[in-house]
Amino acid sequence: TLDIPLDFYVSFVEHLKSSTRILALFGAGLSAASGVPTFRGAGGFWREHDATELATPEAFNRDPSFAWQFYNHRRHLALKAKPNRAHVAFAKLADKKPEFLAITQNIDMLSQRAKHPAENIQPIHGSLFDIKCTNPLCTHVEIENFIDPLVPDFEFTGENDISDVKFPLKNMPLESLPRCPQCQSLLRPAVVWFGEPVPMAAIDRIHKWLDGGKVDLMLVVGTSAKVWPAANYIHAARVTGARIAVFNNDEPDLDEPITRLREQDWFFQGDAGVIIPDVLK
Ligand code: BJW
Ligand code: ZN
């Protein structure tokens, strides 16, 4: 069904079959087929703001109301979205390959909703559905809060696409934003913004897994591999001798050492939602 040379496809499938220690790095392109926008490129704008500029502590501090409406909208979209066939194919791979670990940069929880076992997936940029207090002295956190809208003022009027600047945004007073039940400070999404550390528990778990031995196969799925430390796990797998398979609808950036592929690696170009279920079956 796919336009991939047969021997290329077969060499990948054979290597996959003989692999036990498989690492994956997931990015936004994995959820593209579910309708979740990516960060870089054409889809990466929200009300004319570059999504990567909104994903910063500075953007939140400058205008918490705007930032919260951005996250509320993305929570709403992620909840409406359904896991696609690639999410499901990876969940099934985890059942077949108990040592498989997927590092996901995605915060949409679609892999988890596709029943990817928790022991085979490690999120590193948090979740849209985890909420924490902005007060550094307060420990309040909410895990898997799927309430939508989080506060009454976040209710959308009709089906207005508030990511489009032509629809008016509500002017929300700070008091009406999500507040901490313990200390009344502002709450924030428990996601990892630029300049913030990836949670230590996530880093530790990945390092423990890497210490477990040589990586047979590294799957790089729908990520621009421009964000650190995530991108570095590709390198970490490669230096143990892993062969690398990249799945992306765009050519890898060959000027970057991280995404420069070698003779023994594979690049599958196209929609991950189509190719992944085909090559993992
Ligand atoms: C398809 C497809 C389809 C489309 N099928 N494919 C200079 C050098 C090196 C590092 C730094 C530096 N300056 C600053 C840094 C550090 C910084 C960093 O990496 N910056 C670089 C951008 C330069 N990193 C950090 O700040 C990290 N923290 C840190 O370093 O802490 C240090 C520290 C230690 C101790 C104390 C304090 C600090 C944190 C990074 C957090 C990233 N967070 C975000 C936002 C999360 C919240 C939110 O979503 O709002 O995570 S940014 C954004 O990028 C998000 C994503 O997870 C992440 C990666 O993006 P991804 O998934 O790759 O998406 P895209 O859009 O870039 O790519 C999609 C790809 O899919 C494309 O290739 C498409 O072609 C493809 N595609 N459709 C297949 N259908
Ligand atoms: Zn608090």
From TrEMBL:
Deacetylase sirtuin-type domain spans which residues?
Answer: 1-281
Positions of Zn(2+) binding: C133, C138, C180, C183
Q: Which residues form the active site?
A: H125
Protein family according to the UniProt entry: Belongs to the sirtuin family. Class I subfamily.
Q: What is this protein called?
A: Deacetylase sirtuin-type domain-containing protein
Organism of derivation:
Imshaugia aleurites
